[in-house]
Amino acid sequence: MTIKERVFSGVQPTGNLHLGNYLGAITRFVALQDSHDCIYCVVDMHAITQAVSVWGGPEGLAQNTREVTAAFIAAGIDPERHIVFNQSQVSAHAELAWIFNCVARMGWLNRMTQFKEKAGKHRENASVGLYDYPVLMAADILAYRATHVPVGEDQKQHLELSRDIAQKFNTDFAASAAEAGYEDGFFPLPEPLITGPATRVMSLRDGTKKMSKSDPSDMSRIKMTDDADTIAKKIRKAKTDPEPLPSEADGLEGRPEAKNLIGIYAALAGQSEDEALSQFGGSQFSDFKKALAEVTVELVAPVAAEMRRLLDDPAEIDRVLASGADRARAIAEPIMVDVKKIVGFISSK
Ligand code: TYM
Prior knowledge:
The structure is a single chain. The protein folds into 2 domains: 6-193 and 313-343, Rossmann fold (3-Layer(aba) Sandwich); 218-309, Tyrosyl-Transfer RNA Synthetase, CATH 1.10.240. Helices cover 54% and strands 6% of the residues. It contains 15 helices and 5 strands. It has a 3-stranded parallel sheet. Strands 4-5 form a two-stranded parallel ribbon. Strand 1 (6-11), helix 1 and strand 2 (37-42) form a beta-alpha-beta unit. Helix 4 (57-75) packs across helix 14 (285-311) and helix 8 (128-142) crosses helix 9 (156-172). The longest helix has 30 residues, at 314-343. Ligand 1 is lined by residues 8-12, 20-21, 24-25, 43, 46, 137, 140-141, 149, 151-152, 154-155, 198-201, 210-211.
């Protein structure tokens, strides 16, 4: 049985959706729509793995779920042609995650750097869900037998784990999968798509740290809901160094802030890093920052305006999510029937 190419990816509704999420992930989601069947998920079950204060409690979660959905649509994802939904509406994610909990090994999870970063020094206090986060990610992808996963650079290790889980499931259950008609293994090994000019956008306050939703400083990130004045101010105050910009990429070595701002400019202006450097080489940051603020506002303002328009009608957003969930379930349910059969669970279906 051959496996059809299918794209799956997700974004957490933890608030503070930022330019890194947009350039590293959402614009990539948009670009795949013409060539693939795509499923884009607002991963609300992942969001609750962190402290309640991080995701804002029940009201914050619902609001942020609608906000990410609005960002998907405002960025150009078509929820009629493709599937947009929130994870918790499709029970296959949790069911498959349980089975994968019994496939994944503790040693594999112990190596996950994102858990170590997020749990910090208070590991004993982290939720079990945070530790299990990458297993749920594998379930998200494989509940649809998805083959391609567009993500930012920071998710590479999690996707390698998804491949390991798929591989071990295929090996452990090779005989019963073959009996069910899957001679080549039941799950595809999902391929990460880490592409585009901005797979790792860094913080505006510290060019060695990635731009993140959870950074305590709001000045570290450009949010997709920031207005023009806020964007200009954040860019004006972005950390730099005292040297003018170099004209060649070599000159960015050891200058993480300069490299990051040039990278953001190039991604937004549709240029290569070299093109941006040949334009701004020798300039002072103050001049470059004016141009950077301009291209950023040009991109973010229309998306933010469209998000606001969509968020004025929450019932319509909820309708999009419900319709997406119905279509997602229609794909995942027969897959779960086969998974359960392959594992040996007795079922009436
Ligand atoms: P989240 O919400 O943390 O991030 C969403 C997407 O944004 C990318 N990203 C970045 N890209 C470039 N520069 C940055 N500074 C930056 N920060 C974040 C992330 O790589 C991601 O692609 N665990 C996932 C959500 C998820 C998922 C999945 C993804 C849950 N299940 C299944 C793919 C497949 C995440 O990081 O969400």
